[in-house]
Prior knowledge:
By secondary structure, this protein is α+β, with helices and mostly antiparallel strands. Helices cover about 20% and strands about 15% of the residues. The longest helix is centred in the middle third of the chain and has 13 residues, at about 180-195.
Amino acid sequence: MKTRSNQRGGDFDSIYKEGIKLFKPREGKNTIRILPPAWNGADHYGLDIFVNYGIGIDEQAYLSLKAMKNIDDPLDEARKEAEKEGNKKLADSLKPSKRVGFYLIDRMAEDEGVQFWAAPWTVDKAFCGIAIDEESGAATMVDHPDEGYDISFHKEGTGMTTKYPAEKMRIKRTATPLSEDETQANEWLSFVQENPIPDILNFYDYAHIAAAFEGHTPRDSNEVKPKGGRTNPLPEETPKPKIRTRVQVEDNEEVDDDTGEVTTKKPNGKPTVKKVEAADDDDNEAAEAKMSVQSIRDRLAGRRQRPTVDDED
C-alpha cells in the first residue's frame, strides 16, 4: 500500500524508481533529520546527481550519462555541437544541473516516513557549513541514527524566486536519536538499507534519450541534433517506448526548485544564478552493495562532535 501511494501515473519518464516519496519543503520553517547513507564507499549522507531538465514538450528529466557514468550521452553531444555553432541558449539548456540527493525524515510530518530530496547543491553546502566547528574544524555527525542532530531551515518564495537563507539554518543544540521508538527508527533505517540511493536512480540508455530529443527538434537555423545511429544500453536496462519530445529552447523554461523533477516556467530565457540559498543553482557512481541496519550504526559509532550553532526557537 505504501508503494502504491507513491506511484506516478502518465507516460512520463522518471529519474527515480517507483515507491520513492519525494520531499517538498513547505513555505516557511522546515525541520528535518537526515538519514545516513547505506551503500559501500559512501563518504557523505548524500549522493551528487546531475540532471538534464526540460527535455521535450513535456519537459522531462534525464540523469546525465556523461556526468554520472562517463559514457556516450546524446545530450552532451548536442550541447557541444550547439557551442560550436554559437547557439548559447541551446547549449545552456542542455547543461546538466547538480543536485545532492539524500533521505530524510520530516520532523513536522513524521507519518510520511522516509522521503528523498534532491536538494540544490548549495543547500547541502550550507548544511555542511553549519555542521563544522569553526574552532576545531571537526564535523558534526548530523546523520547518526542514535546521536545525530535535526536541522531547521526556511523556504522563502516559490518558483524561480525560492530561497533557502543560510542565515536561518540551524542545528539543534543537543543530539537526539532518530526516533524514541526503536522499532520506528529501525523501520526507517531498513527502508534506507533496502533502497540505497544509487539503486533508486533510473538511467535511460543512449537510444532512448536520443529518440526523446530528436522526436521534434526546433526548426530554426540553429537546429542541433545528437549524432544518430548509436545505442549504448545500460546493464540490465529494459528499453522503454520512444516518446516524441524535443528540447524546449523558448524563453519560458525552468526547473522545479524543490523536488528536482517537476519544472516551472521562466519569465525569460536567461539562466538564473543565485547565492547559497538559491533553489536552482547548479558524481559519483557509488557501489550498490547493501548494508544492515546495525552496520549503519557501526560505521558511525564513536564519531561524535559537538555542534556550535544554537537551535532555533
